[in-house]
């Protein structure tokens, strides 16, 4: 029977259910080391692929978030996407080893950055290449981080692009799938090559780390011509029986 509740109230109720499910999701008993390794091609490292040129930080050295901002893990793109939405870039390759990074402070800085744009539509681009066993946060931290991003952050995000996804990130999304609403799940897109992103964002103004650019070139060199997408296609809405583009069956 229809409840007749306003959509915003219904979203709040759904959020309460999600938080309850998250509190019951026990990740602490799962050994992080037992999680599947990123099944990425063996990317040969070279001197010019270790990172990007030295970047400047817009925060002063005495700012509470300076020690996080100086790594440039979270950046605001130099231009909006093709729909006029602000683009926030998260680069996993710029995360230092876990013992050198305060992940709770990183979460606070991410929220601090998003707070400036969440009142309007925005896009989030996550560059997965560079996430390793050394800098990967714990699964319990990911659970707690998901709880922190309430309706305020999810309402106006129009697309979450996961670039260069691997088995680890796909497994992680499968784990969290029962907790992710169908509405938010439709906003998540896998991007295998940077060329697939060009239809939606200006790559030159995105500020992609050089390491990720080199990795993308390497991936393309491994593909047969027919396997490399020549023209990006617009993501189609998922069918009611799909989640993340995969049949629920």
TrEMBL record:
Keyword list, A-Z: Membrane, Transmembrane, Transmembrane helix
Gene3D superfamilies: CRAL-TRIO lipid binding domain (3.40.525.10)
SUPFAM superfamilies cross-referenced by the UniProt entry: CRAL/TRIO domain
Start-end of Polar residues biased regions: 240-249
Gene Ontology process terms (BP): negative regulation of endocytic recycling; small GTPase-mediated signal transduction
Composition-biased stretches (Basic and acidic residues): 29-51
Protein name: RHG01 protein
The organism of origin for this protein: Piaya cayana
Name of the gene encoding the protein in the UniProt record: Arhgap1
């Amino acid at each position: 029977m229809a409840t007749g509740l306003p959509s915003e109230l219904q979203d709040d109720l759904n959020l309460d259910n999600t938080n309850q499910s998250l509190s019951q999701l026990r990740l602490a008993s799962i050994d992080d080391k037992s999680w599947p390794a990123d099944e990425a091609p063996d990317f040969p490292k070279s001197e010019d692929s270790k990172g990007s040129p030295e970047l400047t930080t817009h925060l002063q050295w005495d700012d509470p978030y300076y020690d996080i901002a100086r790594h440039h893990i979270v950046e605001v793109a130099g231009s909006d996407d093709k729909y006029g939405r602000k683009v926030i870039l998260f680069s996993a390759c710029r995360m230092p080893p876990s013992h050198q990074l305060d992940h709770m402070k990183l979460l606070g800085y991410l929220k601090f950055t998003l707070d400036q744009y969440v009142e309007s539509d925005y896009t989030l681009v996550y560059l997965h290449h560079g996430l390793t066993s050394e800098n990967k946060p714990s699964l319990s931290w990911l659970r707690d981080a998901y709880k922190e991003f309430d309706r305020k952050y999810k309402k106006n995000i129009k697309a979450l692009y996961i670039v260069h996804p691997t088995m680890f990130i796909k497994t992680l999304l499968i784990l969290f799938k029962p907790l992710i609403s169908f509405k938010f799940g439709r906003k998540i897109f896998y991007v295998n090559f940077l060329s697939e992103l060009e239809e939606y964002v200006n790559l030159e103004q995105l500020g992609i780390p050089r390491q990720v650019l080199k990795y993308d070139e390497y991936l393309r060199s491994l593909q047969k011509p027919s396997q490399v997408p020549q023209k990006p296609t617009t993501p189609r809405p998922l069918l009611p029986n799909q989640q993340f583009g995969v049949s629920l069956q």
